[in-house]
Amino acid sequence: MQGQVSIAPDGRSLNFTGDAGAAGVTQNITYTIASAGGTASAAVAVRVVDRVTFGATATYSARQGAWNLSGTASPGARVQLTVGTTLVTTVTANATTGAWTFTGRVPLPAANTGTTITATSSRGGSASRTFTRTP
Asked: What is the pTM of this model?
């Protein structure tokens, strides 16, 4: 198994923390609970999703007409950047650090209006952020 299982503070559910590199993998967990009333076993399948982030800043270059976006995902994951349902591009996160970058045109409305860009990892998980272009 690529991770650790623990009993949640509520005593009624389990927490699973995946190891580094476990994103996109389905973990099969079998557990047994014993009490004075007897024992019970169960099996669950847990799919670990990627934690995708955007960088702290995004810049727009009016001269280039392009955005500079960055973030992180699992190392080697493919990250799709979309606006609404429109796919803008797919980038690959660095194989060691998980960092991803994109510099290019993103379809945006007029200046001073917000557009939400979503980054979705090939290993599950996504993040959205609203960007505003100023003239």
From this structure: 0.59
